Amino acid sequence: MTQSTRTALVIGGGIAGPVAAMALHRAGIEAVVYEAHRDTADGIGGGLSIAPNGLNALAVLDADAVVGEVGVPMAGMVIQNATGRRLAEFGSPPGLPQMLFVWRPDLYRALYAEATRRGVRIEHGRRLVDITETADAVTAHFSDGTRASADVLVGADGLRSATRALLDPAAPRPRYTGLVSFGAQLAETGLAPTDDKMHMVFGKRAFLGYQVLDDGSGGWFVNLPHRAPLTAAEARQTSPERWLAVLREAFADDDRTPALSLLRRTAPEELLVVGPMEDLPSVPVWSRGRSVLVGDAAHAPSSSSGQGASLAVESAVQLARCLRDLPHPAAFGAYEQLRRSRVERVIAAGARTNRDKAAGPVGRLLRDLLMPLAMRFVKPERMAWQFDYRIDWDERVTAAPGTVPDPIKH
């Protein structure tokens, strides 16, 4: 079969964009990344996990070692309540790569550097404002008056994707989960090492995650229930000093957890106000014409899922396989069939975790009673579906019947 897709425009230079470009390059498709911001995103974002399935997908691109250099191993997770009682403990299923905790700026720099090392061109200051098509190409129009054309366009521009809005003006907006996220990286936590395990504490009024390395350094994050929706910009209008006081108050009654100690060791300039936790339960239109969505633009779980970056990598690799083997209309249909049910299942699981984090007194009591029982009777293999996902790069992709997307309309 003669490959019909030779060139691609990738919109968005965050996490998904460089990975999508590397995957497309492996498929024999020349890809250029166009990023709206004029500068790189160094220093932006909090901590996140790369799950075994994400590492397996990166390994398809020979990029897993790059992430391993900036990540911290997570051998497992310890779930506790506000009294310090252990509710559950679990790790990755056997035979899979060990989960990693990584700070988003470090992940961004590593993937950006690896993509450019492989010859991917990344252009900054290119904010997408329109998409037009001819019979043979798709053209991206940018706010600075420039444009670029290729065989296909890949929207990897995140939760508030301009590409998604252009493909479907009625596309859903991000859903606020009722939680605001904070974090900090500390050179000295004052705590004993956690043996490569992330501790998750369901406090009475907020949720804490923390991990301490062998040298005493580490990091923490907090998900704080906040009824009224607010944007990241609005959250950052409150001073770090004030937010730290709010967080200390939220954990004032949780004196058997290290929350207050970690917060007191956090200087205002160290506090990361990440902002509202949001998700996209389902995006009806993933592709139209010669354009398609990938990563958070198509499927955005909340950070509670621990799967946002990993799902984005999986989708980038699967999309590249589909475009390698099929003409773009059939490729987009096959890609969506491969991905939609899995990512929406992960998003739903993350939403359930968010509800536990924002539980009231009765909900907390039920959670603390039922979680140990649930973990005792749930077999590990039933929880492995998120982590043991593997992609066979060499397997040929066949067209999904009846899944050819609608043409784009202008």
UniProtKB/TrEMBL annotation:
Keyword Kinase in record: no
TM stretches of this protein: none
UniProt KW keywords: Monooxygenase, Oxidoreductase
InterPro entries in the record: FAD-bd, FAD-dep_Monooxygenase_BioMet, FAD/NAD-bd_sf
Residue intervals of the FAD-binding domain: 8-347
Record-linked PANTHER family: MONOOXYGENASE (PTHR13789), PUTATIVE (AFU_ORTHOLOGUE AFUA_6G14510)-RELATED (PTHR13789:SF309)
Protein name: FAD-dependent oxidoreductase
Source organism of this protein record: Plantactinospora endophytica
